[in-house]
Amino acid sequence: MFLTLLQIGIVSGLLSGLVYALMSTGFNLSLGIARVVNLQHGAAILWSMYAAYFAWHTWGLNPLYVTPVICGLAFVIGYVAQRLLIDRILNVPEDSQILFSIGLLISLQYFAQFIFSTDAHSLQARELQGAIILGDLFLQYKQIAAAGVALVGLLGLHLLLRYTDLGRDLKACSQNAIGAAACGLDNRRLYAVAMGISWVCAALAGIALSNLVPIVPDLAFQYAIMAVVVSVLGGLGSVVGSLIGGLLVGVVLGVAQALGYGQVAQALVYTCVFVTFLFKPTGIFGAKLA
User: Is the pTM of this model over 0.90?
Assistant: First the structure.
């Protein structure tokens, strides 16, 4: 029985971990390139969940069908937010940046609460009802779909960063902004593009999560903290670290919940972060301290 529950927890955790990895990757991308602590990332996830719910509730559309529209809007909003708001605080002390980010997160969360109320909204797409049974494993279609959306997003981001001129420009800006500017790159534009891509990652994570959990405004803060925790565990500024950190967090939460320890699952995650800090303060794939 124990081994069966352990197996269920690991598989479920890996599927959820892909969504956490995508969530964290967007946060890490804006941090590594635009050098902004993007706590409003949680609000972007929340609003994407509400957008998916609105499309389903109003027009009966599966959230997967409107993914391109939501992601396109997310990119534009992230790009404009960077250009009009966040660019103005790049040269202020980091604690002021964090306070600004927290304020923006809270504002977007309460604006969502004003529009949608504090009631929980559940999205039940008809095409995602049902499950696959493989021996003792019970995998819901919506779990598989969420993991699939996250995996497509992660692979797409990997291909973008590795094989395109834009990806090379973003890497150059991340590694040496002054050198990139000397070579003729427009760092401010690249910061805005990075923020737009970060919001697309948040939108994909929100669409993936919209079928899994009831949608309430408080999720904005919860997912902002989750993005930070996964990023810190894997290594701030590391996309690979986001993937490994997301899978680790997903497995820890999945196993704890499968074994009946759901109430202490979050505490176990923070314990993993603490233990990681003891041996590697910069995270699993973080850069070495000078």
Answer: yes
